[in-house]
Fold this sequence. Notes:
The protein has about 140 residues and is mainly alpha-helical. The protein has 6 helices and 3 strands. Strands 1-3-2 form a 3-stranded antiparallel β-sheet.
Amino acid sequence: MNLYGHKVNQLARNFTKKLNEKISPLGLYSSQWGIALYLYEKKQCTQIELCQYLGVEAPTITRTLTRMEEMGLVIRNEGKDKRERLIKLTEKAYEMFSKWHEAAQSLEIEAINNINEDELEIFNNVLAKMMKNLE
């Protein structure tokens, strides 16, 4: 019996646990890392975009953003109307980003140890197809 979803979920849980071990000493947690990474790449976005990208409900993102705002890592500004909030990283977050990225990258390297390029390409293709199937 191959429970692929269960295996992917177990991998994600293990990855999250290990990522937290690496980045929490740097003042960040995996849920915050996903937001920081997205904002670093996009420069700014709406809360709705973050919810869609991370696949989580608005209250969860709101709580995480509030914590990140209190830590001085994000700024939330009004968007086109009062309901829309534009989020971006602060200077403090940009200064820390390379350390966070380095920690996350070291885990990526550890995770793909002894896996060759062809296997990784197949893995990425399979993940992409599974994601598409579930949309």
